[in-house]
Write the structure tokens for this entry.
Amino acid sequence: MFWIKLGIVLGTFGFMEFMAWFAHKYIMHGFGWAWHKDHHNHHKGFFEKNDYYAVVFSVVASSSIIYGNTNPEFWYLTYFGIG
Ligand SMILES: [Zn+2]
């Protein structure tokens, strides 16, 4: 069971690395450009609109962990969220 859980965490992590690259190239520079353009314009304070992406993804990951923890039949969502 440990290796299955570790595999889900590492597999999701690797997948998200690919997704981050893919999303950056095709989504954030596409219809997501309104949030993202600050990211390529580094002279305006500490926070950028680009940070919304981190917030949104964090909420998705946290929700997966919490839902997986409170619903035993969806236990794998916990490890998906960690990844
Ligand atoms: Zn970019």
Observations:
- Residues 24, 28-29, 36, 39-40 surround zinc ion (CB under 6 Å).
